[in-house]
Design goal:
- The chain is an alpha/beta fold.
- It is built from 19 helices and 26 strands.
- A hairpin with a 5-residue loop joins strand 19 and strand 20.
Length: about 725
């Protein structure tokens, strides 16, 4: 115990000398705390870790580190011990395997069955959020009054009502598909309804283009909202609430700039650490000088006058804001007087120029949930501290004496070899690293749609994820396997040669040499394709080597291969261009080989009757599993990430936090898109060429494809959706 205290002291001294605690120091403390809590899961230590995670979200790394070290110290003296695990080997090992299998099955069950949400009107709804061991002095604000619950049930008829609330500042991605599957599915399964609500509180970042895209994506995935609303629909009511908040002494106009606000919050972080380290009661310990805004105790009358001036455009943008008067002693940073309104001289895509003051996410989200009588507000984990029973979500509803929905949080969906934050996606699009928001290399829903993914495959993938509360980074292969499994039966088969080299069959018998190939080998009723094997054919350039090597099954001088659904051919010689590349190959055909066992090498092929087209081969966008990380293939930390745009503004931001160690843009895969503009396509494909994205096909030996939006009957363009199986090169990419 003494050694632990000494180590903690050395860490504190080091941090003091550095002047500011780094993210890596906080993460290191978290790792140490998690290690000891696995063996000694003391509830107080787990609460301390939760407080530290909340601090990580707002980049309060000093406070987070202090909380994690407090958890480690608690575990050093606790008598709590984790339950013993069954030993590996023998019957114990079998039991452990069975237990783990059951746990994994529960974890990956359909997301709609993975939670036990309280029914509308039940006790679990009346007390909308509970938490054991609330900190001393903290209050549970999440308890509905009898009148509020009665009014709510009268409005909904006791039906379940959820909402899907995207901010229209970008295109939706696969993570939003998971949220939609859960939001819409939970309500639908219980006979309820879901509202599509645009959280459009930041006119500087929002566009009608994004609104239209979101509506299209929701419809494409098969979800039917009961209504489509906008937070801006409620701007008048939200303004009235703000006035009521001022009148009750729970809001004030503040003129601190960002730097001053940041410094005051740093003082609050130091205060939290001092109380934690010294075991001091936060609600009986004086706040340090400068921790609260100088305008925090301005009179109600003056605040009403100042807020009116804000509305009437009498202040400059950024000169002041309306802040909620929360709880500066709370261990939840979102309670530290976040902004409710700020000045923005921007035209709003929905409300136009009516307003110059706009509510923040932290102010708006909970109030519109309440106004729309949402029964269950389902969010990802970055909102967990906001939605704690003693957090800002319920504090604001309680201060205005309004109805309080149930809130429930689940982990985000991240996928390897990709980025999911809107900030990073916006960088890729605006800086020209990809070709727009619907670039098939992106995991935006528009990108997946253009690549050829189907709504059913995406929804099936989301259903398989379950709903968990720990890191949910999925391998890209899991998503790919879902679409492969779907298309293996639905996709008709065709030939295409992407990089053709000519083969002259010198002993061709002349006339028609018709070969029949099934439209689908497993479904004879779909019929046959007939291809005339002519004296000149084409094979893939990669299927020929000028010298044979062990383990190579393609064509080489003196070597025999089978033309798929055709005959054996043997290379006799070849010609080259001046640069040494092969220009054409000569071969002989064995007309007696159809009934014989084929050689190991079986090649797809094309004839001069095939149509020229373009094939776009899409690969992983990044060369590493987790772009931006030092050890990009290492397991990610479970620590929540930052969610506030700055110290006070309080708008939600779903971006993950970089550790700044690697420039993620340097990890873009230069081979993420390979275009073959002179591919040869089987003529039967052309009937689909002018109907983009309607049909998925399998180009034999090459993968599953669909026709791109750029495609026409005269100039067909195919996108590869996915390879036939995960290639060895992709498995080792980045290793």
């Amino acid at each position: 115990r003494g050694r632990r205290r000494a180590r903690a002291g050395r860490r504190d001294a080091s941090d003091a000398s550095a002047g500011e605690t780094s993210m890596s120091a906080a993460k290191k403390a978290l790792k140490a705390a998690e290690k000891v809590t696995k063996k000694r899961p003391d509830p107080s230590a787990l609460d301390a870790i939760a407080r530290g995670m909340a601090a990580m979200r707002v980049k309060a790394y000093g406070e987070a580190k202090a909380a994690f070290e407090s958890a480690e110290a608690i575990c050093a003296t606790t008598t709590v011990r984790a339950e013993a695990k069954a030993k590996e080997g023998g019957e114990g090992g079998k039991a452990k395997t069975k237990t783990n299998a059951k746990a994994n099955a529960a974890e990956t069950q359909d997301a709609l069955d993975a939670t036990h949400l309280p029914k509308p009107g039940s006790e679990g709804h009346v007390t909308a959020k509970q938490k054991e061991n609330l900190p001393p002095g903290a209050k549970n604000y999440a308890i509905n009054s009898v009148a509020a619950m009665a009014d709510h049930l009268a409005a909904t008829g006791g039906k379940w009502r959820t909402r899907f609330p995207p901010e229209p500042n970008g295109y939706l991605h696969i993570g939003h598909a998971k949220a939609m599957y859960f939001d819409f599915g939970v309500a639908r399964k219980r006979g309820g309804e879901t509202i599509l609500r645009f959280d459009d509180t930041n006119p500087a970042a929002e566009k009608q283009e994004y609104i239209d895209s979101i509506i299209s994506s929701v419809k494409w995935l098969g979800h039917e909202p009961a209504a489509t609303t906008y937070s801006s629909d409620y701007f008048d009511k939200l303004y009235e609430f703000a006035v009521d908040l001022i009148k009750s002494g729970n809001a004030y106009v503040c003129f601190q700039n960002k730097e001053q606000t940041f410094n005051s919050r740093k003082l609050l972080q130091s205060f939290q650490k001092m109380c934690a380290d010294g075991g001091l009661p936060r609600y009986e310990t004086p706040l340090p000088e400068g921790a609260e805004s100088p305008w925090r105790n301005t009179s109600v009358e003056e605040n009403l006058s100042l807020f009116e001036k804000m509305k009437n455009r009498e202040f400059k943008e950024g000169e002041c804001c309306l802040r909620m008067k929360g709880d500066l002693r709370s261990d939840i940073p979102s309670m530290w007087d976040l902004a409710a309104y700020r000045i923005k001289y921007e035209t709003h895509p929905h409300s136009g120029d009516k307003w110059c003051i706009y509510p923040t996410y932290d102010y708006t989200h909970c109030l519109v949930d309440s106004l729309e009588n949402i029964t269950h507000s389902l969010c990802t984990l970055e909102f967990e501290s906001r939605q704690a029973p003693n957090g800002s979500y319920y504090w604001l509803l309680d201060a205005l004496d309004t109805y309080k929905p149930v809130t429930w949080e689940f982990s985000r969906c991240n996928i390897t070899y990709n980025v999911m934050s809107k900030r990073k996606l916006n960088t890729l699009v605006t800086k020209g690293y990809v070709n727009g928001w619907d670039d098939p290399r992106l995991l935006t829903l528009e990108g997946l749609r253009r690549r050829g993914y189907t709504p059913s495959a995406i929804n099936k993938f989301c259903a398989s994820l379950g709903v968990t509360r720990h890191d949910n980074t999925q391998p890209i292969s899991r998503l790919e396997n879902v679409v492969r499994d779907e298309m293996k039966d639905s996709a008709s088969r065709y030939f295409a040669v992407l990089d053709p080299v000519k083969v002259n069959i010198t002993n061709h018998p002349g006339g028609e040499l018709m070969c029949e190939a099934p439209v689908h080998p497993s479904f004879a009723e779909r019929g046959m394709r007939r291809i005339d094997l002519k004296p000149t054919i084409f094979i893939e350039r990669s299927d020929f080597k000028t010298e044979d090597v062990d383990g190579y099954f393609g064509l080489a001088p003196g070597k025999t291969v089978r033309l798929q659904f055709g005959y054996n051919i043997t290379c006799t010689d070849f010609k080259t261009h001046d640069d040494g590349s092969v220009s054409e190959i000569n071969a002989t055909i064995d007309m007696e080989s159809r009934a014989a066992k084929p050689p190991k090498g079986i090649l797809h092929w094309a004839t001069p009757d095939f149509v020229k087209g373009e094939c776009r081969l899409y690969n992983n966008l990044f060369t590493v599993e987790i772009p931006g990380k030092v050890d990009a293939n290492a397991e990610q930390s479970n620590a929540p990430t930052a969610t506030a745009t700055d110290a006070v503004e309080g708008d939600a931001e779903e971006d993950e936090e970089d550790d700044g160690s690697v420039d993620w843009l340097t990890q873009i895969n230069p081979e993420s898109l390979v275009v073959h503009r002179d591919a040869l396509l089987e003529p039967g494909l052309i009937e689909f060429a002018s109907k983009p994205l309607e049909t998925q096909v399998q180009l034999q030996r090459l993968g599953f494809f669909t026709f791109d939006n750029d495609s026409t009957a005269d100039a067909p363009v195919l996108n590869r959706i996915v390879t036939l199986k995960e290639s060895a090169s992709r498995k080792t990419l980045g290793k």
